[in-house]
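Go through this chain for my students:
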Amino acid sequence: MIRSALGYLVLAIVGLIAALVGASAYRAIAPFGLVLCILLMLVATVFARTWKEWSGIAVFAGAWAVLTYVLSLEGPGGSLLIATDGYGYGWLFGGSLAIVVVCLIPRRVLFGRNDVA
């Protein structure tokens, strides 16, 4: 029970880290920073799905979405971490699309074939 809950906590932290790294690095070395951040999302989402399957993706994606939303809001001084421009929308939609793409990968591709002989 505790081990399972700890696994979900780790996936939530991975989602938060992916959101934080992506939101602060997607503009680095344009446009390669955006591509690398979306690749980060693909790898992290595959990790979440292969570890805890659908519930793992739900926890990971939920944590990512909440922190990404918070980071896209205007700060107290009027600054933005995720700007409303092409790169900002690229990060928001690219990260979301990465999660959807991993959800569409067939189970046998990620887990292999479970033939019982």
Notes: Helices lie at 2-25, 32-72, 86-104, 107-111.
